[in-house]
TrEMBL record:
<feature type="transmembrane region" description="Helical">
    <location>
        <begin position="368"/>
        <end position="386"/>
    </location>
</feature>
<dbReference type="InterPro" id="IPR011701">
    <property type="entry name" value="MFS"/>
</dbReference>
<feature type="transmembrane region" description="Helical">
    <location>
        <begin position="159"/>
        <end position="183"/>
    </location>
</feature>
<feature type="transmembrane region" description="Helical">
    <location>
        <begin position="486"/>
        <end position="504"/>
    </location>
</feature>
<feature type="transmembrane region" description="Helical">
    <location>
        <begin position="418"/>
        <end position="442"/>
    </location>
</feature>
<dbReference type="Pfam" id="PF13000">
    <property type="entry name" value="Acatn"/>
</dbReference>
<feature type="transmembrane region" description="Helical">
    <location>
        <begin position="449"/>
        <end position="466"/>
    </location>
</feature>
<keyword id="KW-0812">Transmembrane</keyword>
<protein>
    <submittedName>
        <fullName>MFS transporter</fullName>
    </submittedName>
</protein>
<keyword id="KW-0472">Membrane</keyword>
<dbReference type="InterPro" id="IPR024371">
    <property type="entry name" value="AcetylCoA_trans_1-like"/>
</dbReference>
<feature type="transmembrane region" description="Helical">
    <location>
        <begin position="393"/>
        <end position="412"/>
    </location>
</feature>
<feature type="transmembrane region" description="Helical">
    <location>
        <begin position="117"/>
        <end position="138"/>
    </location>
</feature>
<keyword id="KW-0813">Transport</keyword>
<feature type="transmembrane region" description="Helical">
    <location>
        <begin position="20"/>
        <end position="45"/>
    </location>
</feature>
<feature type="transmembrane region" description="Helical">
    <location>
        <begin position="234"/>
        <end position="253"/>
    </location>
</feature>
<feature type="transmembrane region" description="Helical">
    <location>
        <begin position="57"/>
        <end position="80"/>
    </location>
</feature>
Length: 514
């Protein structure tokens, strides 16, 4: 634990630390791309008249966020020609990723979905998803490596605040610009959307300037990554494995569709069958990619030692440091901590609509006021972690998240009550921001500085895996048991999390003092 409780003045002064302010900028850069792939792009395609079934396919462009741990080892160890010598390992990759994101957004701005094939827009969206996920890998590694453990909570809070600001700019800000430039559902104007996406791309100049100004983390300045031949071969192997994954996924499309049709009729549950078959398809593609990597090691194109160091050593290190029992306990906590919030979040908008709230009311209360409450909660959570330590605030965040889920039951009973909506959104977003600040600081403390990018990428992918899988069934659960029982169930989902924190708290503090 921290040796003493800091005064409130000392805790608040941490807000102005240069590293904390840097993470605010990087948080904005990380939050900007997401909605340019999802809701903002969906509205653009909707104005063109693209079918909703086609629009939803674009959500796959963000799969890079869920699989970023696959190429995190490349980002962690591979030097970039000229850039690494000039800027250092982390800043070189940050600059490259930011330029890739900026280029991808400009690529999207050059495609008119009313005139060009959607394949081009899809390719641009995939590039943006991959580039943004790469940026997240480097940003997370830089955040952990550039400050000591005591400052991580404020770094996390600043990052969360920036992320929300970025989403606000790419969501409401982009829609405001598009409308201002003269596009609407009645009168589609490609130039308006093009100018809007150019404006979003130009914001990355701020991130690029920040990357050029800041210092490389001290522990990495002396890193010598030579052996270019090894890194080139490693990169080629990665590209071949990715190609095998894509080819496997594409070649099984017809067989998958046939299997869905046959089993869906047989089991009378098309949704469950679809999820199960797609999971098998995903696993099969992953096996194909792994076999390619294995083949490249067998023919000694790359040596086994490099693969072990890049993919196996980070996992071995985690289990060695904490021991098997505590390691599994911590991984269970990572995988389940956000389960109640994410599962509930899937049905939040349908709830507001069913209660009669208008789009303007939802935009004002949920999308705007709620964002500011999340930002305030994140900074307040950061101060509390700095003052009291990670684990107590992690427990507080879990308790508040479960309690605020119960408030949604009151909202259902109140109906179209704007005051109650403000109360629920205030409580939910404040507790969510606080819990996320503590949770990110907790994840940061789990990583080893020798494997920062890989280990954090694994943790951040794991923390949304189970909640997102369950979230896919949220609509079906609401239809079966109703909103009130559903929200009670999500609150009860938080009880195992409280137990895991209680079990891990003493052992984690002894093993990993804060």
């Amino acid at each position: 634990m921290i040796a003493r409780l800091r005064s409130w003045q000392e805790s608040l002064q941490a807000f102005m630390h240069p590293r904390v302010l840097t993470m605010l900028v990087f948080g904005i850069m990380a939050g900007l791309p997401l909605l340019l792939i999802f809701s903002t792009l969906s509205l653009w395609l909707g104005e063109v008249g693209i079918a909703k079934s086609d629009i939803t396919y674009f959500s796959w462009a963000a799969l890079g966020y869920s699989f970023k741990f696959v190429w995190a080892p490349l980002v962690d160890v591979m030097p970039l020609p000229l850039l690494t010598r000039w800027l250092g390992r982390r800043r070189a990759w940050l600059l490259l990723a930011q330029c890739m994101v900026m280029g991808s957004i400009i690529f999207m701005a050059m495609v008119d979905p009313a005139q060009h094939s959607l394949v081009w827009m899809g390719a641009a969206a995939v590039c943006l998803g991959f580039s943004s996920a790469t940026q997240d890998i480097v940003t997370d590694a830089y955040r952990i490596e550039s400050a000591n453990a005591e400052l991580q909570a404020m770094m996390s809070a600043s990052y969360i605040a920036g992320y929300r600001i970025g989403m606000l700019l790419a969501g409401g800000g982009a829609l405001f610009l598009a409308s201002y430039f003269g596009t609407s559902m009645e009168h589609y104007n490609f130039e308006a959307w093009q100018l809007t996406y150019w404006a979003m791309a130009s914001l990355f100049l701020v991130g690029i300037l920040t990357t050029l100004i800041i210092d490389e983390p001290k522990q990495l300045q002396a890193s010598a990554l030579i052996n270019r031949r090894h890194h080139v071969r490693f990169f080629i192997t990665f590209l071949l494995a990715v190609s095998a994954f894509i080819c496997s996924f594409a070649l099984t499309a017809d067989l998958t569709a046939l299997a869905k049709q046959k089993l869906g009729l047989l089991l009378s549950n098309a949704q469950l069958v679809s999820v199960f078959i797609e999971l098998i398809r995903l696993v099969f593609a992953g096996v194909a990619a792994a076999l390619v990597a294995l083949l490249m090691t067998q023919i000694k194109f790359i040596d086994k030692q490099s693969v072990t160091h890049s993919y196996i050593a980070p996992i071995q290190d985690f289990f060695t440091r904490y021991g098997w029992s505590l390691a599994w306990l911590l991984l269970a906590l990572v995988g389940l901590y956000r389960i109640s919030d994410i599962v509930l979040g899937v049905v939040a908008n349908p709830l507001y609509q069913s209660l009669g709230f208008t789009k303007n009311e939802i935009a004002t209360v949920v999308k705007t006021f709620g964002v500011f409450m999340t930002i305030f909660g994140a900074f307040y959570g950061g101060v509390l972690v700095l003052r009291y330590g990670v684990m107590p605030i992690l427990m507080l965040g879990a308790v508040l998240s479960a309690i605020t889920n119960l408030l949604f039951m009151l909202l259902v009973q109140s109906g179209h009550d704007i005051t109650m909506l403000y109360v629920v959104i205030t409580a939910d977003n404040l507790s969510g921001g606080l819990a996320n600040a503590a949770f990110i600081a907790f994840l940061s403390s789990l990583t080893n500085i020798s494997f920062t990018a890989v280990q954090y990428a694994i943790f951040s992918s794991l923390m949304t895996l189970i909640p997102k899988v369950l979230g896919g069934y949220s609509g079906s659960m609401v239809e079966s048991i109703g909103f009130e029982n559903f929200f009670l169930m999500t609150a009860l989902m938080g009880l195992p999390v409280l137990l895991l924190i209680a079990l891990a708290r003493k052992r984690f503090n002894l093993t990993h003092p804060q």
